[in-house]
Amino acid sequence: MTGHVALDPVALDPGGTRGAALAAVRGAFARAGLDEPALDARILVAEAAGVRPGVLLAELERPLGADATARLAGFAARRLAHEPVWRILGEAEFWGLRFRLAPQTLVPRPDTETLVETALALAPGRAPRILDLGTGSGCILVALLAERRDASGIGLDRSEEACRTARENARANGVGDRAAFVVGDWTGALAPAPGFDLVVSNPPYIPEGDLPGLAREVRAHDPVRALDGGADGLDAYRAILARGRDLLAPGGVLAVEVGIGQAEPVSRLGETHGLVFLRLARDLAGIPRIVVFGR
Ligand code: GLN
User: Fold this and answer.
1) pLDDT at 7
2) Is 218 in the pocket of ligand 1 (CB under 6 A)?
3) Among the CATH numbers 3.40.309.10, 3.40.50.1820, 3.40.50.150, 3.40.50.1980, which is that of 102-294?
4) Is residue 258 lining ligand 1, measured as CB closer than 6 Å?
């Protein structure tokens, strides 16, 4: 555990400029060994000041003000306790869209944009019907619906709060009329609803034993139910792939995100359940991240 580094209250002078506050927070974050001290400081100072990060840098000489300084001290203390900036802001960016977060939703990861990209490339020409299993904040489904104005979709999640958050995100991003969110366990809740052209999922895939070794930002702040994939990390794939054929329309595709080293076992698992392996897609780091099946 990293030692707690207190922000020296003198360093955050309520009469000081935005630039001085930025330097103080950045310094404290760097001393605490946070991964991205400059970026995090910039985002949080901008949030405290109520301006966009880009605007902040153009106006560093302006005073921050007492209220904003107090807000910033609170944000900085939370970040120093390893709360991710997106949790502090309560929203994150994904596929160029903003998503509100809840404690029951994972912070959307850039890797998952590969799933959106892959699914879009495989979507049929006619109006696609989409199913997102374990929708969380709704980021995958909402991004797909935002790109394909003719598509409609269902997001399923075990958490009622996640469904509420996803519904709000769909509405805020202008796709609420084409999205429905259903509380339920994997595919069980959808027993009589086959015929999807696209089934997508970023399920929990971390092997149980690896959970304690995750970064504190993830371990302490992402919901464990969105991470824990059981003993070998593959429990969710067993459930999803077993129902895959029943959910897909003829010509439909199922695309799942996988963890490092899971592409091969997940491909085999799908074939065991009568799905046809179609392709792999790699994330920006070149890691096989998405496995695509047909029926
Ligand atoms: N990609 C996430 C992480 O690395 C894990 C999300 C998941 O289990 N689907 O923390």
Assistant:
1) 53
2) yes
3) 3.40.50.150
4) no
> In ligand 1, which atom is closest to the CA atom of 134?
9
Atom of ligand 1 nearest to the CA of 204: 8
From the CB of 205, is ligand 1 less than 6 Å away? yes
Which of 75-98 are b and which e, b meaning 16 or more Cβ less than 10 Å from the residue's Cβ? bbebbbebbbbbbbbebbebbebe
Domain boundary assignment for the chain: 5-81, 102-294
The residue with tokens 């790109």 is 147
Neighbours of 1 (CB within 10 A): 5
pLDDT of amino acid 26: 95
Strand partners, 223: none
273 CA distance to ligand 1 middle (Å): 24
Q: Which atom of ligand 1 is nearest to the CA of 106?
A: 6
* Residues lower than pLDDT 70 in the chain: 1-10, 191-194
pLDDT of residue 239: 95
pLDDT of residue 124: 84
In the reported structure, the alpha carbon of residue 188 is separated from the centroid of ligand 1 by a whole-number distance in angstroms of: 23
